[in-house]
Amino acid sequence: MISDRLKKIICDELYLDPETIEINDETQAPEVPGWDSLNHANIIVAIEKDFGVRFKGLEVLKCNNVGALQRLIDSKVSL
Amino acid sequence: MIDFSALQGDTLWERWQYFAQTMPEKEAIIHWRAADEPFRWTYASLLETANKFSHYLKNIGVKKGDVCAIIIRHNPNFYPLYLGIVGMGALPSVLAYPNPRLHPEKFRQGLTGMAERSGLDWIFTETALEEIILPFVEDKNTTVNELFFPLEWNLNKELNSDSIQELSEIRAAIKSDEPMLLQHSSGTTGIQKPVVLSHAAILNHVKNYGKSIQISNSDKVVSWLPLYHDMGLIAAFHVPLACGVTSIQIDPFEWVLAPILMFIAASEEKATLGWLPNFAYNLMADKLSDEEMEDLSLESFRMMINCSEPVRTESHKKFLDRFSEFGFKETALAAMYAMAETTLTVTQTEPNNRANEVAVDREQLSNGKVVITDDESKLRICVSSGKLIDECQINIVDNNRTVLANNSVGEISVKSISMFSGYRNYPEKTAEVLDENGWYYTGDIGFVYNNELYVIGRKKDIIIVAGNNIYPEDIEDVVSKVENVIPGRVIAFGEDDIELGTEQVSVVAETSLVSEDDLSKLRVSILRAGMSINVNIHQVYLVPPRWLIKSSSGKPSRKTNRNRILTKNDEQVWSKK
User: I need a labelling partner for B152 at 20 to 30 A (CA). Which of A79, B164, B471, B503 fits?
Assistant: First the structure.
């Protein structure tokens, strides 16, 4: 399940209200208002900064939804 | 450099066949895949499979002159299908694969808009899109004969000699001045301008453009550009394929998620040529980490060509500063000016030279004069798009289309041997932009200095986001329909994003809502409306009723209201950033 922390980072980056936006494990980037290819890189950087982790482009490419992104973060944080 | 006079073939099919016969084992296309080994087409294997596709197409009823829409995401069989269509004398037309955010109804509206003028005869797509596209094909008013799924076709069976003979006869009847492909200009729902290009236009362009970049047999192109875009289709696909040069094709959807893919492919395959819209210079320089770049070399690049949106000096500098330590050469920073209507290129930076820059007086520039200055407080650095390619001319003209004196700023008009013959089934639009002497009026604003073209803006209200042209009318139309937006009281415009090196879409909409909570919700509804036509609205400004100033036509003026938004600190304007 995705954490409130991850949801908040995504919402902050896109100026969305976390209370009114539905983001769950199955959510894909194009379903979230404002999450397009140009903003994608900014969201990834914001996540990296907040969690103190680094992603490789190819790792992110394998994440087909927000749940997969959460699992990638978890795998980095637990190292 | 390639000796173009020695190359055979008056049509694209003949040219490809010539390479399949003279250098069958040379790699034509390396189909790159992020999580798998690349698929490698040689000229011989590509043509062999293209023949099988032609045979199939013939059997289902595709005829010479038919327009065949292809809506297929990055797939190795895309290329032989495309070639197979050309080999039938039919016209391939590559359409964008729908982004998941695009509403199916809006996607179908886009198809309807295209079909109206282009007269789409057939659609070739993937089974995954059947549900979305079928209602369009079944509509009683459609021009489309049928929908097919060519990736499901069995291509294992060899063609017999009768089939090969039939195809040879079809190819012999294709003439160089006949239409070869159909491209669509941008526009999300309604405003589509179909450009038809002949074999001769493309082969002439391949020759003139190839010479300008001194293309040689040792070159290798790397590209993630979508093939529905003229830069991807002509520069990175047709030019190499008609020169006997290898191209590496990357999935654009994968590239936006992992921009490093372009450099991995380039480094492994030693690519020499690439084309990028300006935003990609910023994106790659800002986002690719040292860790990702480790062990990669960009030494092989001899030209990285900036095109499709205004070329920015900061972006070139940023890219060079970031990647010179990985072997990227300053002299590889190039630019070109191009458009679908002239097949592609008008001007191009000469090889082995960094794109020139001039410092001009900003105020004089807005008064239409080019005055070189070194006064830091008023200079604007303009990046050159290079020199004219052969058999192409330009003029700088005023609003009456009178040619202006040297060092004047005006609209760029172009005449080229590779000019389109007009928008298909759109005579009124053609008449607006193409005069009786064959000059095409681009709507772009620029000047010529020391025989090089500098493009500095445009007359039209088009918004260019990351190389894609977006018409404000399309956005205004959907936002007007959002609940609590006052219908017709909306403008959309492009706002410069210096950090990203491109424009972003901004919307101003009138509403009677006042509370912070209501305005926040309305903003999200407007963002979603943009998503439904695959446009990302970056900034939403909400204003009270009657805030927008009308132009003489009675509609809200984009220019006046844009300036008000960007220059005034108006307390009545609500926004999130």
Answer: B164
